[in-house]
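assembly run, all chains below
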Amino acid sequence: MATVLFYLLGLVTVIATLLAITRRNPVHAVIYLVNSFFALALLFYLLGAPLVAAWEVIIYAGAIMVLFLFIIMMLELAPTPEADRMGPTWWQWLPVLLLALALVGCTLMLIGVDAGVAQGVPRWYATPRDFGFALFGKYALAVEVVSFQLLFAAVGAFYVGKPERKRRQKKEEGA
Amino acid sequence: MTLSDLHALLPQLILALGATGILMVGAWWPSRAPWVLTGVALSFCAAISAGIVLPTVTEVGGMFGVTPYARFFTILWSILTGLTLLLSLRYAKVHRFAGAEYTALVLFAGAGMSLLSAASSLVGLFLGLETFTLVLYILIAFNRGEAIGAEAGLKYLVMGAVATGFLAFGIALIYASSGSFHLPEAMHGLQIDGQMRPLGLLGWAMLLVAIGFKVSLVPFHLWTPDVYQGAPAPVTGLLATGAKGAMFAALIPLFAALGTLTLELNAVLAALAMLSMVGGTLAALPQRNLKRMLAYSSVVHMGYLLLGLMSGGPDGQRAVIFYLIVYGIATLGAFGVITSFAQADGEPQDYETFRGLGYRHPRRCSALSAFLLSLAGIPPLAGFFGKFGIFHAALKSNHHLLALVGILAALVSVSYYLRPIIVLFMQERPAQRLRPGCTHEFAVLTVCFSLVLYLGLYPGPLLELISQILPSP
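ok done. output:
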């Protein structure tokens, strides 16, 4: 049963990701990506990592994708053509619906077959406490390096995205 | 993390924390030259501390080694960072770079390179590589006024992101197959009945794609000429020398750990090396732009380095390290000359602008010629010994065909390296004067020029040093 679920979820992930990278409308792409993340989260759960599964939903599907949607809408990167004003056509919403239904089905199946509840916590199950110790103990240096990277990425994005100084523009206009 | 761990990471900490400090203080006190000079001082401090402060542990966090090998490259990349900053001093002023940000980014790139060369686990390799790649995305597009720079930055970003995806996937597959990130266990674990596990082979295929992108081997080299052309010249120098050199420095222990399993990858590696040598040479021949020519020639050099890496053994490893040092010095020098000629409205790249320039700016043009001749491998200069070592190691390990192709590529390379020299010195039309050089640039060029000469005449001491620091098999 778990094997069937695994392949089913794998299929959903791959289809959703393929649809995500082939959509022209960025909002549609984001919706498919959220689907793919949900399927991934269930896969992680199936592999005995409920913590990672929860984060996949909370951080990736929840926080990051909402941020994506927010930026897309704020910068108006997905203007709706006149023809689409009536709302999406059936071939635009049907795949999402099917994928979502598949995910709901898989979740229900997972609840039905969850062996972890009957047998107690599996051996490889990492509690948030274990995870925290590994992250800030064994991999503390890696966390530090990554945080440095993020700092410099933020600085760089700020620098490259910042408009040129006004003084220089004035100079050029005057010249 | 204990105090002795921090003590062992002192050089990298100087670079990274120095970069952060400059960034923070720079926000209140924006200025250019003082920050760049502080960066130069910090990188030389890091180099000195890597040389004299001896670590008490051999590995930090199970990710980065503090062996003599790692220390050697830390010194090398710190000095490179310092020289790059010194070279950029005037360039940054002309192009109105934000001094604190630029210095901080270059310093952090140096820290990343030294982390990558010191990587003793696949996680360390990934982190080190991403550290300086991330910084280079920004540095390449640092010239905000120029569309070509933004284009180059975007190309490198997209290509680099794809390569990172392959790298992460490859590392994950190798981990799944061997159950360890740590070298050499991660590679030993791939073995089953004297062969490589299929999953490990798949992981290595992905790893090779990522490596091919990062060091620009044919057929993953397509970004190279555009990025070289579009990036600011000092950044191109850093990218061409440090970024690729650090990758090779990390590959040497990786391949050493792989041991006899390398034989299974040999067919692919041989194809990559052959394609790089032949493809790079053919593409470099018709170039009329110095930066693009250097980009394609770097592809050829990466082919030679891969050949040395395949040869393996202490001979091959020593040849690779020596080669990447002399290649780095000559390349840094060549981009240094381009930097010193750069004006606010762009850098001279077309051979047309160089015509007859040898008589207007004899010192810098002679230095440029020396660097190009060293890259071509003309005997009295350092490049000759580099090539000699590589081909010697290749012949010794029975890579006859590849060595032959390499020697032919080296012969043909003389043609495209001589063309700019002919344009500089043998064509009549008196060129316009370009920008006069300044002291800092001359200092860096003098260092590179004397090293190219010195290592060509006395390669012995450096080769001896490299033999001593080689990772034990």
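Chain A touches chain B at residues 138-142, 145-146, 148-149, 151-153, 155-157, 159-160, 162, 164, 168 (CB under 8 Å).

Residues 35 and 93 of chain A are 13 Å apart (CA to CA).

not gonna interpret more than that til we talk
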